[in-house]
Amino acid sequence: MDEQTDGGAAGRHTPVLLQRCLDLLAPALAVPDAVMVDSTLGMGGHTEGVLRAFEHVRVVGIDRDPQALALASERLAPFGDRFTGVHAVYDEITDVLEDLGIPAVQGVLMDLGVSSLQLDEAERGFAYAHDAPLDMRMDPTTGPTAADVLNTYEERDIARVLRVYGEERFASRIARGIVRRRERAPLTRTSELVEIVRAGVPAATRRTGGHPAKRTFQALRIEVNGELAALERAVPASIEALAVGGRIVVESYQSLEDRIVKRALAAGATSSAPPDLPVEPATHTPYLRLLTRGAEEADAEELARNPRSQSVRLRAAERLRPTPDHLRTPRRAA
């Protein structure tokens, strides 16, 4: 993270690949009365960039973290009714827009992963470098904590979470260590978890590849917040929210997120007709156009300005036509 001195949202957050996001969204946001959804508002950096660059655009900012929403709303107050903040998870975009009476939008921006605020607030338990309660909830008002997961899951389920969501090679050893430790007393602190991970990862591995607890903390954060399940729903729902000509830009920070985004965008950009048909029916032509060649990464200038961009993978697409009925994702029941 960048070293920041200003206590407000603007001083605590440098948005990743901001100019590239603005350039990709610009053609879609050029229409009169354009609306963009910032599905992961965070500290409001990307939204502020959009509101400054496009003086006619309205932004709906969604975030599940009440603290982030409050700080961003304060930051964006000078833009008046051009900004609307909503406390929700990004897979609820359809309901959010219905409640606001917005039938379709011209842009959707998603900046995934843990936010600057969550990393900087040590007591939230997201950072392995600081001792704190084992919480890790993006919305601290609801749901189970990381401590709940570690103290109640079966050993095999802890191992599965670490292996699948953290791609941790030593998941079984770490899970075994967690269960042994909790037999003496429930785990409550991040420092306890770091100690268990260090003991479970061989010394030779600990000397390479960064902090040994990085993958375990990532996995627990994803599990606690249901991040990948929400993202699986959110990307198709966000595409459905786009008007024809609208654009979606997504920034991912780890391979599991990027894989979900890649799959959803590629599905829309690929013909759904059987390959042996001599003529492609109009109902099977692609409804998305990819705007990036693969996933774009940060260049040296961006990395120097904002270290958080080191792992970013950016993908974008434009809606060409409505999604054909046979490819629509059924809406989840309320």
UniProtKB/TrEMBL annotation:
Reaction catalysed?
A: cytidine(1402) in 16S rRNA + S-adenosyl-L-methionine = N(4)-methylcytidine(1402) in 16S rRNA + S-adenosyl-L-homocysteine + H(+)
Any one Pfam family match given in the protein's UniProt record, by short name? Methyltransf_5
The UniProt entry, under InterPro entries, shows: RsmH, SAM-dep_MeTrfase_MraW_recog, SAM-dependent_MTases_sf
- Protein name (database record): Ribosomal RNA small subunit methyltransferase H
Location in or out of the cell: Cytoplasm
Instruction: Please name the source species.
Output: Cellulomonas wangsupingiae
Specify the superkingdom.
Answer: Bacteria
Which keywords fit this entry according to its UniProt record? Cytoplasm, Methyltransferase, rRNA processing, S-adenosyl-L-methionine, Transferase
